[in-house]
What does this fold into?
Amino acid sequence: MKHLLKIAVVVISLLFNSACSDSSTGTADDGGTLTIDLNIHLMESDRSDNLTATLSDDDIDLLIRGVNEIWSQASIQWTVSDISRVEALNAEEFERMMNGERPPSPALFRSVIPGQSASPAEWDLFIIHDLGGVVGGIYFPQQAAILQPEVDPSRQALFEGGLIRITAHELGHSLSLGHVPCESPGNLMAPGCRVGDRALLNDEQIETARSVARNGAPYDGS
It folds into this structure.
């Protein structure tokens, strides 16, 4: 009887361990490529050339290809899910800022994005022509939206300047990556640095970014 009891305990133990093993494999990171859908919104305004994007579909394809070259080090790839044209809001105040009549602010930048076009559960990239050189781009975690010009702060066009790296940087924010000091030469998340290729990610950043990507929703600032 004791012998049979021991066999039963062993069988139950094996079944329990097997069940635990099966339940954990679903959340494990096997290191494979993670694909993220990205909605691209080309903004336009009949009151502001600065808010009106001029990129073509081919330009966007080249932009995303460049971004994916950078993010391949984390085995993360961005796929364009949709390209749309949307009307920018608050054009008058944006033009006042561009003319130096009012100071720039995150609230002003956020105000040009139509709220119904952004979803906190999806990745949204809003492209305008120029942000005035104030910043290269900006991520709004509450809307999970990136506002990105098609020229970099030095007014260089898409493939002449650093716009691909800047876009990759802002997408890093959407994966919860914060800024690192410029003493981290070459790091993608080091703003304003002038050394290195500034497109590298360290192991901790890669692990963090992949964790958010696996969750399937952009970083919300919490």
Notes: The first helix runs from residue 2 to 25. The first strand starts at residue 34 and ends at 44.
